[in-house]
Amino acid sequence: MYKNRFVLVLTLLLALVFIAPSIAQNAKKGEAKKMEKKEAGTLKEVKCDPACGFCIQSKDEKEIISDVKLHAKTHHQMELTDAKVKEMIKDVK
Predict the structure, then answer these.
(1) What is the count of structural domains for the chain?
(2) What are phi and psi of 55, to 5 degrees?
(3) CA distance 93 to 20
(4) Cα separation, 77 vs 83, whole angstroms
(5) What CA–CA distance (Å, rounded) separates 37 from 64?
């Protein structure tokens, strides 16, 4: 009885050892596709007043909006709307 359990556990472990690299490769392929989609967009930026020096560049508009709103709140005590930040976004040439 113990021998059967041992064989079953050993078989499952061996199967896991051979399947794990395949699962990891599939996960990496999925991440690569997500990165390709992000990289496909145009690089955009928002620059703060030159005296401040804050500048953010990204292809992800949501990232820019959240970072600019956080910067405005923490460094300039300003509450910006998403629409106001979108007006500030410019394409990088």
Answers:
(1) 2
(2) -150, 135
(3) 43
(4) 18
(5) 17
Please report how many Cα atoms fall inside a 13 Å half-sphere around the Cα of residue 91, on the Cβ side: 3
Give the pLDDT mean for 64-81.
93
Q: Are residues 51 and 67 in the same domain?
A: yes
Same domain, 30 and 49: no
Residues spanned by the domain of 27: 1-40
Residue with tokens 């930040």: 85
Q: What pTM value is reported for the model?
A: 0.57
Neighbouring-strand partners of residue 47: 55
Residue-wise pLDDT for 18-58, tens only, equals 777 777 677 777 776 666 665 567 899 999 989 999 999 99
Query: Residue 29 is encoded by which pair of tokens?
Result: 């392929």
